[in-house]
Write a structure and sequence with these properties.
Layout (H helix, E strand, L loop, with lengths): L1 H17 L10 H20 L4 H18 L1
Helix pairs in contact: 1-2, 2-3
């Protein structure tokens, strides 16, 4: 899925940015950004595996929410 591939690129970019943050942010900002970025790809994959359209939509909304959290 192209959208999952783009989300995976976001994960790579977030990890690159977080590696440049001060060590004092390792357990605060850095951790939150990494978890939110990974959540985007995880929710897209979860939605793809669901059979019911309402389930799919919910997981896509969760992914969207995580994307806004990263922004």
């Amino acid at each position: 899925m192209p959208v999952w591939q783009r989300a995976n690129t976001v994960v790579e970019q977030v990890y690159s940015i977080c590696s440049k943050l001060p060590r004092s942010e390792e357990y605060a900002l850095s951790s939150q950004l990494k978890r939110a970025a990974l959540s985007i790809t995880a929710n897209i994959a979860e939605a793809f595996g669901r059979n019911h359209s309402k389930d799919k939509i919910n997981f896509y909304f969760y992914a969207r929410g995580s994307a806004f959290e990263v922004i």
